Amino acid sequence: MGPRILIVEDEEPLTLLLRYNLEAEGYTVDSVARGDEAEIRLREAVPDLVLLDWMLPGLSGIELCRRIRAREETERLPIIMLTARGEEAERVRGLATGADDYIVKPFSVPELLARIRALLRRTKPGQVAAQLIAGDIELDRETHRVKRGGRELHLGPTEFKLLEFLMQSPGRVFTREQLLDRVWGHDVYIDERTVDVHVGRLRKAINRMRRPDPIRTVRGAGYSFDETFAKAG
Ligand code: CA
């Protein structure tokens, strides 16, 4: 079971988007739409991280954050605040109240996922590995280095993110649209063929010297990281 994340957010479409993306990354997700409900939920069980919206019915995010810090069981609970644009003064207050990080809406999902991983790596080093290893491929999220058979590969930033994303869920098939969403960010408009171009570049970079190709093209569906390849390591 992956790290547990509690989403406290009253915008349902955003909660659904976050839940979908977090579950795809292997997190266990719970959500509540009110600040006062979140307080009750946190007394029942303490998650590994909280995504906390600023403006909430019942109890504001800032007040909830203050109460979380005041309780011994949750005083170190990692909190990322979700704030609206233009609330600079409030953001500063949020950090002063004890949030570990904040992200301004509208944000890109890959950016938020990166922040979550960074925060969990600090607080739960065992749970979010800095390295992804599959077969003879090693990907280091901190140094952004990729090796195959011990030799360093040179990938562009997009190819790196694409490989990282695919390696996280071996065997799972992602459509081009899903890959655009998760790797490029949902607010960016790019033609789906761009995905094919970058998969092509990624393959070229990692499959030198006739090594087996770990990326599967699934006709009419999309791409996936070959799970048998992943297990072979
Ligand atoms: Ca809100």
UniProtKB/TrEMBL annotation:
4-aspartylphosphate: residues carrying this PTM: 53
Cross-referenced SUPFAM superfamilies: C-terminal effector domain of the bipartite response regulators, CheY-like
Keyword entries, A-Z: Activator, Cytoplasm, DNA-binding, Phosphate transport, Phosphoprotein, Transcription, Transcription regulation, Transport, Two-component regulatory system
Record GO biological process: phosphate ion transport; regulation of DNA-templated transcription
Entry-linked Pfam families: Response_reg, Trans_reg_C
GO cellular component terms, semicolon-separated: cytosol; protein-DNA complex
Stored SMART domains: REC (SM00448), Trans_reg_C (SM00862)
Organism superkingdom: Bacteria
Single GO MF descriptor: phosphorelay response regulator activity
CDD domains for this protein: trans_reg_C
Function: This protein is a positive regulator for the phosphate regulon. Transcription of this operon is positively regulated by PhoB and PhoR when phosphate is limited.
Protein name: Phosphate regulon transcriptional regulatory protein PhoB
